[in-house]
Specification:
The structure is a homodimer of 200-residue chains.
Chain A: H1 10-29, H2 36-43, H3 47-54, H4 57-80, H5 86-103, H6 105-113, H7 120-146, H8 158-174, H9 182-197
Helix pairs in contact in A: 1-2, 1-4, 1-6, 4-5, 4-7, 5-6, 5-8, 5-9, 8-9
Chain A binds a DNA duplex (30 and 30 nucleotides) through residues 5-11, 14, 35-37, 45-49, 51-53, 55-57.
Chain lengths: 200, 200
DNA sequence: CTTTTACTAGAACTGAATTCTAGTTACCAT
DNA sequence: ATGGTAACTAGAATTCAGTTCTAGTAAAAG
């Protein structure tokens, strides 16, 4: 009855192993520097298998990107649920971002490296994911706006205000332009983030 | 006596025409979507000529990126020289960024799309350019720090604090995730920027 | 146990990036 | 001015990575 695509039990494992291999290769040789042969042999499978699951090299890159974004978003929302106040929440976002960027630096580097030049389809999926994330964040912060702890601003402006500076710093740190580690400036950026959105 | 490379009078023009053509192609079909044939015919020259001047497709991409960064930096410093106070300067940075991103959106989109995955050489050049820019900015803002108008912070932190949020917003706007134009939120981000670096 | 089809394998194909060879012009020294 | 040198240009030829194709294999469904 169900006309959904049937997938086998082994499929998720294979897809995951390809994505793992891809991230390792990309982080070592860059996106353009790695061939699908590299990914193929790192994942221990054939070209056929890769093209069956992902359709193209770009397809792998897109899936990996989307997976990374989803994991980061989930991680952030999970962290937020342990917070009591608006201030604690805002500071947690900055802290969690730093922890993610330093612990999963391969993925962080990959996510920072590209988001344009994807297929229209992938961009649409990303836009949906982002919208959903923005809404979840907004739902989390709304009560603190209501109580007057935080400023009322256009929805799309909270993420840039809170995460923009730390993201920009991390981007430059990942590309080797800064020597001071994100941890060393975390408190400073947390202060700035809170200062930007707290009620005056 | 000089063992510098001699370049002909026509060379800069040819290089410029190739870079112009490349930006047009990249902005229309994306970096990976454009072939060097595309660039070649748009610039009206041969493959040989392109490879003589740039060495590779990646070479073109790197030169274009570096050129774009240099132009943006120059533009910013030029704008700053018309400012009297620290506050005026900080607000000018945000405003000029918005103007640049909306007027030269092809270049803005290109600069936002990639900075990692360049050759070690290009990354080093970018690092030098960025360091020089940071120092120039610091030299500009130092007097305002001295007079107590602005906070004294680690050098590398000013750019993320001031431009991070607007950059992040523009990035998302360029990739079609936001409908509200940068101009509509410029004042808000200028306030936040000034608030982040002004003396308390 | 048979049928169906997701899935895998790897050889063959295609086309874009790059290299090569043969010129052609600008610049300089005499 | 003129001959030499090296920057520069052209476009055919090559290479090699991405993709497609065909022939299977094995897991689920009936």
């Amino acid at each position: 009855m169900a006309n959904e695509r049937i997938t086998r039990a082994t499929t998720p494992a294979r897809r995951a192993s390809v994505l793992d291999a891809a991230l390792a290769c990309f982080s070592e040789r860059g996106l353009e520097g790695t061939t699908v042969s590299d990914i193929q042999s790192a994942a221990g499978c054939s070209v056929g298998s890769i093209y069956h699951h992902f359709g193209s090299k770009e397809g792998i890159a897109e899936e990996l990107f989307i997976l990374g974004v989803q994991r980061l978003n989930q991680r952030m929302l999970k962290r937020l649920r342990r917070c009591k106040t608006g201030e604690e929440s805002v500071r947690a976002v900055v802290g969690e971002y730093v922890r993610w960027a330093t612990r999963e630096s391969a993925m962080a580097r990959y996510l920072h490296s590209r988001d344009v030049s994807f297929s229209a389809d992938a961009r649409e999926r990303l836009r949906d994911i982002h919208r959903e994330y923005v809404e979840a964040l907004f739902a989390w912060f709304a009560p603190f706006v209501e109580t007057g702890e935080m400023r009322r601003l256009p929805v799309q402006v909270y993420i840039p205000l809170i995460s923009g500076p730390i993201q920009e710093y991390v981007r430059r740190w990942l590309s080797g332009q800064h020597t001071r580690s994100p941890q060393q400036v975390e408190a400073l950026f947390a202060d700035a983030a809170w200062n930007a959105v707290k009620a005056r």
